[in-house]
Amino acid sequence: MTFTLNDTAYGTDTPAAKHAMFDDLRSQLTGLVHGESNLVANSANFSSLVFNAMPGLNWAGFYFLQGDELVLGPFQGKPACIRIKKGRGVCGTTVVEGKSIVVPDVHAFPGHIACDVNSRSELVVPVRRPNGEIMGVFDLDSPLPNRFDQDDADGIEALVAILEKTLV
Ligand code: SME
Question: Which of 57, 96, 115, 137 has most ligand 1 atoms within 8 Å of CB, for mutation?
Answer without folding.
Answer: 115
